[in-house]
C-alpha cells in the first residue's frame, strides 16, 4: 500500500549522489580495513568495523534524523499541516519512523550484510543474535525519539524545539554503548532461569523496540485527534515490573514484584504528570462527560497519570496484604509495608498541587510553580522543621519515622491528599464561567 509520508521522506532522503556515495564510501572503508590488517584476522577486523559503522550510521546519525523529523516540523510551523492530512496514525507513524531514517537503514543494511558474511567466515559466536540486537536497538532509539517529541510537542520550549530531548537520548546511547558491546560469558539469571546473554539481550531489545514502536503509534493517534483508551501506559508499567523483577533473586522473600510495581508505577505517574496537558479545559470536558455518563468518552479524554496512580494503589494494597507482619520489609531499612500506601497518597497530593496551578485560566507557568512548591513542601519545610527541633511538625510534612506507628503516616498523608483535593475542587468550581 502506498504511503505518501514514507514516499515524501524517501524523496527528501535520497538523491543519485547519495545512492552512489554510501556504498562507495563503505566499500572503500572495508577494503582499506582489509589491506591495513597486519595480523591476518581480516574477517574479524571487517566484522568489527561493520558493527561500528552500523552503530554510527543507524544509532547515532539515524537518531538525529528521527529526532529532526518532528522537531524540524515544529520549528518550521508545518506540523499542523501534517495533522490535517488524511493519513491514519499508523501510516503517519511508520512513514516517519522508517522514512526519515531510510538513508541510514540503506547504509545500515549494507553494514549488516558485511558483518554477517565476515562474522560467518571468522566463526563469530552469537552472530545472528548480535545483529538482531543492534538492529532492534536502532528501531528502539528512533521510535523513542518520535514518541517523545510528539508527546512533548505541547510545550513551546526552545530546548525541545532545538532537539534537546533527541540529543539526550543519543548521549544515553553513547554512554550505554560500552556495556552493550562488551561480551559477557556468564549466564543471566532471570526469573530463576539461566539464559544465554546474547539471546537475553536480543529478546530484550526486540521487546522494547516493539513497545516503543507501539508508543509512537499511540502518541501519533493522540496528535491526530484519534482517541484511544488509556490502557497502554499502565500495561507498559506492568511489562517493566515483570522485566526488572526477574533480576531479583530474593523475589519470594520480600514481595519484590509488588514493590517494583509500586515504584515503577509511581515513577511513570510523575513522568506523565509533568509531560502531558492538564489544562482546565480538559478537566472541564471530563466533568461534562461524567455528568452525561459518557464513560467511554471520559476514558478517552483521561490523562495518563491517573491510570498509573490507580495501578500503584493496587500494588500498594498487595504490598500491605502480602506482608507477613509489620516488621521491616527490606533488609536493614526502616521501610514498613504501610509506607506503600503513604507514597501513593503523597503522589496524589503532588498531582493535585500541579492541577491547582494548572487550573488558573491562561496559566503558562503552572509546571514551574508546581515544581517550586513541591520542592518546598517535600524538602525545605521538613528540613527547616528538623533543624529547629520541631519533630512533630517535620513528621507532619514528611511522615516517615521508624519510631512512629506506620499507620500514622497513612493518616497524615490522607490529610494532605484530602486538603489538596479540596483545593483542586475549589479551584475547578471557581474557575468556571459564571
Short précis:
Helix content is 74%, strand content 1%.
Alpha-beta content class: mainly alpha
**Per DSSP, what share of the residues sits in E-state strands of 2 or more residues?**
under 5%
Task: Report the average pLDDT across residues.
Answer: 86
Largest sheet descriptor? 2 strands, antiparallel
Task: Count all strands and give the number.
Answer: 2
* SSE string, helices as H and strands as E: HHHHHHHHHEEHHHHHHHHHHH
If helices are DSSP runs of H or I spanning 4 or more residues, what is the number of helices? 20
Which residue ranges are poorly predicted, with pLDDT under 50 across at least 5 consecutive positions?
A: none
Shape: globular
**Rg over CA atoms:** 26 Å
For the largest sheet, list the strands in their spatial order: 1-2
What fraction, in percent, of the residue positions are helical? Answer: over 70%
- First-to-last CA distance: 52 Å
Q: How does this model look, in words?
A:
- This protein is mainly α and 434 residues long.
- It has helices at 4-13, 16-36, 42-75, 79-83, 89-99, 102-121, 127-151, 158-161, 164-181, 197-223, 232-245, 251-254, 256-273, 280-291, 295-301, 305-322, 339-358, 366-387, 391-397, 406-431; strands at 188-190, 193-195.
- It has a domain at 1-226.
- The longest helix is centred in the first third of the chain and has 34 residues, at 42-75.
- The protein is built from 20 helices and two strands.
- Strands 1-2 form a two-stranded antiparallel sheet.
- It is globular, with a radius of gyration of 26 Å.
Amino acid at each position: 500500500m502506498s504511503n505518501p509520508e514514507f514516499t515524501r521522506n524517501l524523496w527528501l532522503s535520497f538523491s543519485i549522489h547519495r545512492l552512489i556515495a554510501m556504498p562507495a564510501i563503505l566499500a572503500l572503508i572495508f577494503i582499506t580495513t582489509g589491506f591495513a590488517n597486519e595480523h591476518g584476522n581480516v574477517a574479524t577486523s571487517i566484522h568489527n568495523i561493520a558493527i561500528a559503522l552500523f552503530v554510527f550510521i543507524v544509532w547515532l546519525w539515524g537518531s538525529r534524523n528521527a529526532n529532526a523529523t518532528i522537531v524540524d516540523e515544529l520549528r518550521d510551523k508545518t506540523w499542523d499541516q501534517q495533522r490535517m492530512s488524511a493519513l491514519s496514525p499508523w501510516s503517519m507513524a511508520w512513514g516517519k519512523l522508517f522514512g526519515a531514517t531510510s538513508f541510514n537503514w540503506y547504509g545500515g543494511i549494507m553494514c549488516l550484510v558485511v558483518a554477517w558474511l565476515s562474522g560467518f567466515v571468522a566463526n563469530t559466536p552469537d552472530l545472528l543474535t548480535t545483529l538482531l540486537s543492534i538492529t532492534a536497538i536502532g528501531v528502539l532509539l528512533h521510535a523513542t525519539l518520535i514518541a517523545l517529541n510528539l508527546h512533548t510537542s505541547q510545550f513551546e520550549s526552545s530546548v525541545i524545539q532545538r532537539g534537546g530531548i533527541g540529543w539526550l537520548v543519543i548521549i544515553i546511547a553513547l554512554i550505554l554503548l560500552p556495556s552493550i558491546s562488551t561480551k559477557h560469558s556468564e549466564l543471566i539469571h532471570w526469573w530463576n532461569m539461566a539464559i544465554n546473554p546474547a539471546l537475553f539481550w536480543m529478546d530484550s531489545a526486540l521487546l522494547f523496540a516493539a513497545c516503543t514502536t507501539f508508543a509512537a503509534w499511540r502518541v501519533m493517534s493522540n496528535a491526530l485527534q484519534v482517541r484511544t483508551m488509556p490502557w497502554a501506559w499502565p500495561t507498559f508499567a506492568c511489562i517493566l515490573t515483570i522485566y526488572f523483577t526477574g533480576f531479583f533473586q530474593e523475589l519470594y522473600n520480600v514481595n519484590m514484584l509488588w514493590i517494583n510495581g509500586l515504584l515503577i508505577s509511581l515513577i511513570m505517574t510523575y513522568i506523565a504528570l509533568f509531560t502531558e496537558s492538564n489544562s482546565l479545559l480538559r478537566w472541564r470536558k471530563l466533568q461534562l462527560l461524567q455528568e452525561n455518563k459518557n464513560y467511554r468518552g471520559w476514558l478517552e479524554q483521561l490523562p495518563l497519570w491517573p491510570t498509573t496512580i490507580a495501578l500503584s494503589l493496587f500494588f500498594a494494597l498487595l504490598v500491605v496484604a502480602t506482608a507477613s507482619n509489620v516488621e521491616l520489609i527490606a533488609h536493614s531499612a526502616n521501610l514498613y509495608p504501610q509506607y506503600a500506601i503513604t507514597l501513593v497518597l503523597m503522589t496524589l497530593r503532588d498531582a493535585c498541587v500541579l492541577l491547582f496551578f494548572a487550573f488558573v485560566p491562561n496559566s503558562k507557568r503552572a509546571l514551574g510553580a508546581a515544581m517550586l512548591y513541591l520542592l518546598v513542601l517535600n524538602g525545605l519545610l521538613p528540613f527547616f522543621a528538623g533543624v529547629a527541633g520541631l519533630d512533630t511538625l517535620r513528621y507532619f510534612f514528611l511522615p516517615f519515622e521508624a519510631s512512629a506507628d506506620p499507620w500514622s503516616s497513612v493518616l497524615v498523608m490522607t490529610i494532605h491528599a484530602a486538603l489538596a483535593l479540596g483545593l483542586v475542587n475549589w479551584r475547578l468550581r471557581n474557575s468556571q464561567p459564571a
